[in-house]
User: Fold these one by one.
Assistant:
Number 1:
Amino acid sequence: MKTIVLDTTGKLCPFPLIEAKKQIAELNAGDTLVIEYDCAQATENLPRWAVEDGHEVTNFKQTGDAQWQISIQKG
């Protein structure tokens, strides 16, 4: 299994979600996508999309004043 890091810091929503969808499509089941972002809207959009799409959120943390990191394991 592999882990891919997607840094979308500085990109406006919905860019983090769009890029996450593209990236996870290229991964195999069990692989992990780590997304770093600073768009507050994505704190709701990314976890909701992951669960609705059958993936598992394995880590979700705030890394700065307005920065977050979420890890999504492909289902």
Note: Residues 6 and 35 are 5 Å apart (CA to CA).
Number 2:
Amino acid sequence: MESPMTVSAFGHRHEQVVFCQDEPSGLKAIIAIYSTALGPALGGTRFYPYASEQEAIADVLNLSQGMAYKNALAGLDLGGGKAVIIGDPHQVKTETLLRAYGRFVETLHGRYYTACDVGTFSADMDVIARECHYVTGRTVEHGGAGDSSVLTAYGVYQGMRASAQHVWGDTRLAGRTIGVTGVGKVGRHLVRHLIEEDAHVIVTDLDTAAIEALRADYPIEVAESDAALIAGDLDIYAPCALGGALDDDTVAELSASIVCGAANNQLAHEGVEKLLADRDITYAPDYCVNAGGVIQVADELEGFDFDRAKSRASRIFDTTMAVLDQAARENIAPSIAADRLAEERMAQIGRLAQIRV
């Protein structure tokens, strides 16, 4: 097993980027630590068959920066980091590979805590934890928080209520028509919250089984396609599937007054948010409203308590209100307001480390 190699992330403000390779197990991984100003960097491990190492590097750098901002805005005393394992998890994921990866995370001595992401699950975290102390998002059987989609959806729901208050002066969603794209784990839990509020919910998903399972439990309407959903008569649009759901064409067709969903990186490019503003559509920044999952796994570091974690996730309502109010007050995009609030907290709290004890 080779030692980790630290390199400069040119063009980025990352503290550390570590390349990890263990040839016998087939492990090829990259760990990126963007900031530890607020505490140890926390972020999931993505297991994905990247087309090239450069693609993997670009992804881990962007994701780790996003985690720093998400954790800061969520009020956590944690910095931001991310890891990627290069390869198809269905073909190359093994106990040996995961444990080798855990050894590399251990060599960072707590500067980075890992958790689940695309291609990794709570059971994988249990395996990694056999070689590493710095793991969260573990199974309930091992004292972990289990499925983080529960509080991810709850946080999005709170962000949606705050957006409704900002736009209509009322947090209630009863009678509102809400379109949800993607009804997997997070989307399904979000739909439950909306139905309980007597909202009219329209959904789409490429997975017909997910649609039928949802239909069996809730009185939902199913749109013929994503395009049909977006072009329909909506009050709120909730993208909860893949990133990049909002592009020029989508925004041109969108009838909703609010966009608030769980998907990461919803804007296809930076100019999309201006297009939304030009059409008077309020955008609740994704990393603000979908922070319930990271709040859940962060709580695990203290010994997981669901009620405590849910209480913390409920504050996403207040954070969303602060973001949207600042955006309106300063006539800036909500994403810029969210960034500024996160950067301000990182700077202010990070400065306290200069006070020697």
Note: Residues 1-9 have pLDDT under 50 and may be disordered.
Number 3:
Amino acid sequence: MEPARASSRSALALAALLGAAGVTHFAKPAPYDAIVPRALPGEPRTWTYASGVAELAVAAAVAAPKTRKLGGLVAAGLFAAVFPANVKMALDYRHRGPRAKAIAWGRLPLQVPLIIWALRVRRSAA
């Protein structure tokens, strides 16, 4: 596969991941509400919806070749920005079953490859 096609597929896969995550913020918001850090002002549902909108907007930016470079950078920032919610989830799940704990704690190191992926999409954008 030629490099341009591979980078386009990678970008579209990242856009699909972001888009699916964004949709779930609206379809099933309660789990997201639960991990909104308490230090943030306002209602958790507002943050859930705002982050869903952000994920959908970033997905669109990554999917479109003209905005892909900026979209990749913003996606990396978004993945870093949601890290505190993942930390809160891991701490909140300390007393849950092994599977739930594994999922919650597994999300923490997953942010690193997501950020790297987003930055690679940015670098490979035309």
Note: The helical segments are 3-27, 30-35, 44-63, 68-81, 83-92, 98-124.
Number 4:
Amino acid sequence: MTNYPWLDGYLLSKPGAERDFKVEWQWERYLVRGKMFAAVCTPGPEHKPHAGRTMVILKCDPRLAEAFRAEYPDVVPGFYSDKRNWNSVYLDGTVPETLLQDMCDMSYSLVVAKLPKKVRETL
């Protein structure tokens, strides 16, 4: 279940965004020029306390990552990601829609900023 049915379309609306499915991880990944800026997954029962909760994983400025986690119980350290630079947001939670959109925008921008200048110019 998701409280954010618009999320897939929003992520795919980013310039150059593509979606693929990583079979080994069972993740829907959102990529820009081959670099992941978001992923949606539902961890299995072996991954307590996340078990069965669908989440989106987003890159985040490390200072803001901590602040989001402190303010919103449905924002946790990135699942199977660098916990300093990635957050997970439970999609059955109560994070305000505008904040989740801002977090998606930030994730995309942080990943695009690391692409070569010539690639960024084509976006």
Note: The chain has one domain: 7-122.
